[in-house]
């Protein structure tokens, strides 16, 4: 029996907890030996979403093969004071010292930092907190804009839903990728993402504008990015001229419609390659006629 213990902080995010808990619960339903426990410093735990939770205040006996997970909590920035007492953090450190695995989700990385578990390690957190985490723990190496990072037996993930990716990764490590795929399918998770994938996609990064016409064109490109899309048809669908569309699109997103489509293709191709596809097959799957353009796009600097 492998035990996973979630250490709950006040005002924790439900999905930070529920997503990974569902992963391990689904694995247990499929016959794998996972036992889930919840501990906190107080029996009654408030959540950021207003639902109260009950947790044990006494830690169970942990073995080296067990896992401690610290979900994140609501805060626009990392807390100025400790969320957990020194005694609680020492329990987490003791588990790690004994050979156990420790993981965090979102702002839970701050607890690992206070415990000294991020010193000399690569780690990550939610993109809104990355810079602050790096300033607070200068001995850590904060990796920006990735879903999760594993450095030895310490794992850290980005915000909210990335906890599911982290938990699926742990299942794949413990039981193999087939079991992780089984659980993902049970949970109706579209795909199991790699840790080094970006926290937000091009579909989200370039939506912070107020142009309805540009949003309509983005909807078309998002849905049909593998197709050859002519500027003439995109402009007609938006009810503007080609020149006007190009100007508005560039003002709103910083990209031309073609460059936006290329970014979508590149992101999807990178995901396929991360899952084991060749560059040639990934290029064809996302709409390129051959792999030459994909190779050129992959070779460009990230800021290009």
Question: What report would you give on this structure?
Answer:
- The chain is of the alpha/beta class.
- The protein has two domains: 185 residues, Class I glutamine amidotransferase (GATase) domain (Rossmann fold), CATH 3.40.50.880; 98 residues, Homeodomain-like (Arc Repressor Mutant, subunit A, Orthogonal Bundle), CATH 1.10.10.60.
- It is built from 13 helices and ten strands.
- The strands form three sheets. The protein has a six-stranded mixed beta sheet, with helices on both faces. The chain has a two-stranded antiparallel ribbon with strand order 3-4. A two-stranded parallel ribbon has the order 7-8.
- Helix 1 runs parallel beside helix 5, helix 8 packs across helix 9 and helix 12 packs across helix 13.
- The termini are far apart.
- The model has no long low-confidence stretch (mean pLDDT 90).
């Amino acid at each position: 029996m492998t035990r996973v213990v979630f250490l709950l902080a006040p005002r924790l995010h439900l999905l930070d907890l529920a997503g990974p808990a569902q992963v391990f619960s689904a694995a247990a339903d499929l016959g794998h030996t996972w036992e889930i426990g919840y501990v906190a410093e107080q029996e009654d735990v408030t959540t950021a979403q207003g639902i109260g939770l009950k947790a044990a205040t006494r830690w169970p006996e942990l073995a080296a093969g067990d896992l401690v997970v610290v979900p994140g909590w609501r805060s626009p920035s990392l807390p100025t004071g400790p969320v957990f007492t020194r005694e609680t953090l020492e329990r987490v450190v003791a588990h790690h010292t004994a050979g156990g695995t420790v993981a965090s989700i979102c702002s839970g990385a701050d607890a690992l930092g206070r415990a000294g578990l991020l010193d000399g390690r690569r780690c990550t957190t939610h993109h809104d907190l990355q810079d602050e985490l790096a300033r607070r723990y200068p001995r850590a190496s904060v990796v920006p804009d990735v879903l999760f990072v594993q450095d030895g037996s310490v794992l850290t993930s980005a915000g909210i839903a990335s906890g599911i990716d982290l938990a699926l990764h742990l299942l794949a490590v413990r039981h193999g990728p087939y079991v992780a795929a089984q659980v993902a399918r049970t949970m109706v998770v579209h795909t199991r993402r790699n840790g080094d994938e970006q926290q937000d996609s091009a579909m989200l990064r370039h939506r912070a504008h107020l142009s309805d016409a540009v949003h309509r064109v983005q909807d078309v490109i998002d849905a049909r990015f593998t197709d050859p899309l002519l500027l003439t048809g995109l402009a007609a669908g938006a009810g503007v001229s080609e020149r006007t569309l190009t100007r508005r699109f560039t003002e709103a997103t910083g990209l031309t419609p073609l460059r936006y489509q290329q970014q979508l293709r590149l992101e999807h191709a990178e995901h396929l390659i991360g899952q084991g596809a060749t560059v040639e097959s990934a290029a064809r799957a996302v709409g390129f006629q051959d792999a030459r353009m994909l190779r050129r796009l992959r070779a460009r600097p990230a800021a290009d």
